[in-house]
Every structure is written in C-alpha cells, then in structure tokens.
Amino acid sequence: MTSLSASEVLRPTELVDLVQPDYVVARFERMVSDRNLMNMLFYGQPGVGKTSAARLLLKKIDMDVYEVNGSIKTGIDQVRDEIEKFCTHYSIYGQPKACFIDECEFLSASAQAGLRGVIEKFREVRFILTANDIIKLHPALKSRCMPISFDPSPLQAEEIISRIAPRYHLKLEDAGLEIGDKALREILFTEFPDLRRVANRLEFEALPRQPSAVLNGTTDLGMEHNSDPPSISHPSSNDWSTAY
Ligand SMILES: Nc1ncnc2c1ncn2[C@@H]1O[C@H](COP(=O)(O)OP(=O)(O)OP(=O)(O)O)[C@@H](O)[C@H]1O
Ligand SMILES: [Mg+2]
Known about the structure:
The chain is of the alpha/beta class. It has 9 helices and 7 strands; from the N terminus they run H-H-E-H-E-H-E-H-E-H-E-H-E-H-H-E. 42% of the residues lie in helices and 12% in strands. The strands form 2 sheets. A 5-stranded parallel β-sheet has the order 2-3-4-1-5, with helices on both faces. It has a two-stranded antiparallel sheet with strand order 6-7. The termini are far apart. The model is unreliable at 213-244 (pLDDT under 50). Bound molecules: adenosine-5'-triphosphate and magnesium ion (MG). Magnesium ion (MG) is lined by residues 50-51, 102, 130.
C-alpha cells in the first residue's frame, strides 16, 4: 500500500491535470513552449488548485522564482525591499524571472500600491498572483494581470472531469490504490472543483489495489454510488467568472 496521501498522489504534474478548460490548458502550454509567461491573477474558492497551478507553470518554464505568501508578508516593506531587490538582481543562470505572490489579497493597501509600481517598472519580470477574494484587490493591481478563474462553469466542469478522471485512475493505480469508475465520478461531480475535498474523499474511499477490492461502483466500505453522477452544484461566481 502507498505511503503517500491521496493529495500527494493527485498533485498535478502536467498542465492537463489543471482544473482549467482545454483552451486555457493549451494557452498555458504555449506559454511554456515560448518560455513567456503573462502576468496573471489566479482566483477562485479555496482548494481549487491555484497555488499548485502557479508552481507547476513556473517549474515547467524553469524560471528564477521569488515566492511570497501575501498572508504572512503583508507590508509595504516586503514589496519595496524584497520583491524590488529580486527584480533588480540578475538571474544566476540567466533564466527568465518571476515573482509569485500567493494569497495576495492579504497584502496591505500600501503594499498593493507599491506592487503596482513594481509591476510597471520591471516589465521583464513576470508576476503570478493568487487570491480567493479578488474584491480585496485594488482595481489597478487587477488590471495589470490577466485574470484566470479557477471556478469552472458547470459545462467546463464536465469537460475537465472527463479529461482528469482517467488520469486520476492511472495515478491512483501507480500508487497502489483503486476506486471504481462510478465511485470516482461521483466524488468528482459532488466535490468539484474543491480538490482538497476530492483528495480527502479518495483518501477515505480508495482501497489498496486488489483484484476483488472494487465491485463496479461499490467500495468495500459499503458505500453505494449512484450510476448517474449528480449534477454539479456551483458556488456563486464573482464578476469575473467568464474572464477567461
Ligand atoms: N490539478 C490538481 N489535481 C489534483 N489535485 C490537485 C490539483 N491541484 C491541486 N491539487 C491538490 O489540491 C489541494 C489544494 O491545492 P492548492 O493548495 O493548490 O489550492 P488553492 O486553490 O491554492 O487553495 P487555497 O485557496 O486554500 O490556497 C492540494 O492538496 C493539491 O495537492
Ligand atoms: Mg493556495
């Protein structure tokens, strides 16, 4: 049996793993092949994979990255001293540079104002910001980054689930775990797009791989799964739900 948690097993390793419709994945792939990232703001509810997506993109492009958690370093001093210092320095290996500010809605108003100036000044440095609550972001900061919603519409969710479900099966199989296709789809359709909840359910319901462990949608825990996945319920989207 695997010693990895379901969350570690499912962690995205390729851009197709991301909870984004195909056309956004294709756009990300082009950024990777061109090694040319846009300034972007990933936003959406907790657990939808914003931080993981940012880290994966930065790793794929092999950028020189400075990562800040906006909920820990919230002040103007950090922007001025640390981020600006990073932007000024040459990259040791000549890689393109990126500044990743996770949970940037927690930056103070003065830090957000300072960041606007830094983004303007250092055009060769790319910025990826993530936020749950974009209402707290200054409009001038938002307008400097391409907004990418991680709260898919019901139609997009179906497309994404069809793409990632087979990959989940393979990843679980590689980790020595197994779950019936119907059971997996039920979990995805119920919990999507909260991938933390998906991982928790799988941690609970996936079983060590044995030939008779999974009986066509019924786990050994005795949990019956409907043959038809329930319809997807969605949190209320914010103004930018159709932004990209
Ligand atoms: N594309 C993915 N497929 C499967 N699991 C994923 C994916 N992206 C992230 N995860 C897993 O889901 C969990 C939440 O991911 P992550 O921390 O990136 O979400 P988040 O949107 O940044 O959440 P928060 O808003 O709370 O910071 C992590 O355990 C991560 O391993
Ligand atoms: Mg996060």
